[in-house]
Amino acid sequence: MNKGERKFYNVFTELQCFILANMSRGEVNGVTATHYNIIEYIYRNDKCTGKQVAKAFNISPPAISRQLKFLVENHLIEQKQSSLDRRIFNLSATDKGKFIIDNSENFRERVAKQVSKALTRDELESLTSLLGKVIGEIVEGHT
To answer: Quick check: 76 and 35 in contact, CB under 8 A?
Structure first.
């Protein structure tokens, strides 16, 4: 992906997560952009710990615990106690969590490529900036 596509891809991630979080039905009801990013991190860093996730996102331990609890309860990640140190729980994305990440990435890549083909570089930069502004307003209005 070129730089313009990557910027659009990142902005579109926010829109897609907003759509997913506000769906009235489906398997991913209530998933926020933060949840999505945590699932993706865990997927890419299999068997990481809650402490590592908290550090990666600069989130306090109590806040990350709430996020992880939601993801476990919704079968998007799983926690398994370490056989070496019973105080440590390793995190992994479930098949459901992996499916969400893989399908979301494929969808965003297809859209980014199609938009990139349809617009000039300047138009793509303008669209990305405008979408970022609009999505910021939409997300702020729902917090």
So the answer is: yes
